[in-house]
Specification:
Elements lengths: L11 H17 L7 H23 L4 H27 L6 H22 L2
Helix pairs in contact: 1-2, 1-4, 2-3, 3-4
Length: 119
Amino acid sequence: MNEPAKRFEDLFVWQKAHQLVLSVYQATKAYPKEELYGLVSQMRRAAVSVPANIAEGFKKRTAAEKCRFLTIAHSSLEEIRYYMILSQDLAYCNTVAMKAQVEEVSKLLTLYRSKIQNS
């Protein structure tokens, strides 16, 4: 049996979400300068929101409180999913690898949320 996480950084879902943030930052460096305060800003903000909400919910006392933050994280993940479609359609970057990361984080968030709800 896995030992319970002592810090949010110990959570595998948080680690994967953080890796997604790093990928988004790396990819958006190459976006056109006119997108800096548009798509780049929105995409980065949504990406950062995912691990930030996992972290914020980590120390909440009740399962309902924890799940609320995981729901917010999942909503931000869906927002990123759209920004990747837009980025691909505008030919700003190839989003195949990031889409795989989003899918992985989404599955992990669902599993983590289920574990909390059922504990």
